């Protein structure tokens, strides 16, 4: 289906997204001066955010990728059973790691990522998420940089998918109610 057919309304337009990403990049650049920064992008949802964010970060850094999956019960819910699909290439021991994520919803994925990465003994480990749905949190996770707090609505675009599609949209939109 065309994006227009499944979108209810635009939540955050492309210009607002880009402005916020630039602010986050500036804050990260200030905080990581002289550090050995590695950005770890959680696939696939974090990709659009990572590629824009890294171009707004002025300090030298590496990027790496990790793929996590939560077993789905439906298109819009995760069950909580999280599993590692693809691991990092980099050794992060003693390094300053920043996780770059699209959205923190229940917090289960982020909790898994943090536990997995802390076990590898980085010098520091922090989280930068574009979106945060605080009302949905089941597990408390520390978030260091947040793009936008959003209400409990299913969003797509800018990396976020509905059934693997619409990640390419340059804005964030609320999907229409699911037909039962
Ligand atoms: P959590 O483990 O419940 O925090 O959810 C993590 C994953 O669920 C995210 O990385 C997304 O892939 C997906 N997710 C949660 N909310 C949304 C949404 O509103 N739109 C698209 N994907 C979502
Ligand atoms: Mg997803």
Describe the protein in words.
With 180 residues, the protein is an alpha/beta fold. The protein has 4 helices and 9 strands, in the order αβαβαβββαββββ. The protein has helices at 3-6, 14-31, 47-54, 108-118; strands at 7-12, 37-43, 61-74, 77-86, 96-104, 124-132, 145-149, 155-156, 172-175. The strands form 2 sheets. A 6-stranded mixed beta sheet has the order 4-3-2-5-6-7, with helices on both faces. The chain has a 3-stranded antiparallel beta sheet with strand order 1-9-8. The chain is globular, with a radius of gyration of 16 Å. The two termini are 17 Å apart. Inosinic acid binds at residues 45, 70, 78, 102-110, 154-156, 160.
Keywords:
180 residues; alpha/beta; six-stranded mixed β-sheet; three-stranded antiparallel β-sheet; 9 strands; binds inosinic acid; binds magnesium ion
């Amino acid at each position: 289906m065309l994006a227009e057919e499944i979108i209810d309304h635009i939540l955050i337009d492309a210009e607002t997204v880009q402005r916020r990403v630039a602010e986050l990049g500036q804050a990260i650049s200030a905080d990581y001066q002289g550090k050995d920064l590695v950005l770890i992008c959680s696939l696939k949802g974090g990709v659009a955010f990572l590629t824009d964010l890294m171009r707004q970060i002025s300090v030298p850094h590496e990027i790496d990728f990790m793929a996590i999956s939560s077993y789905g019960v439906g298109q819009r819910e995760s069950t909580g059973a999280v599993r590692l699909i693809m691991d990092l290439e980099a050794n992060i021991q003693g390094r300053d790691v920043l996780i770059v994520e699209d959205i923190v919803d229940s917090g289960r994925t982020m909790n898994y990522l943090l536990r997995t990465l802390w076990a590898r003994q980085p010098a520091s480990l922090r989280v930068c998420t574009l979106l945060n749905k605080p009302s949905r949190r089941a597990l408390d996770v520390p978030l260091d940089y947040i793009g936008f707090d959003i209400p409990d609505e299913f969003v797509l675009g800018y990396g976020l998918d509905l059934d693997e599609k619409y990640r390419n949209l340059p804005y964030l939109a609320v999907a229409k109610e699911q037909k039962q």
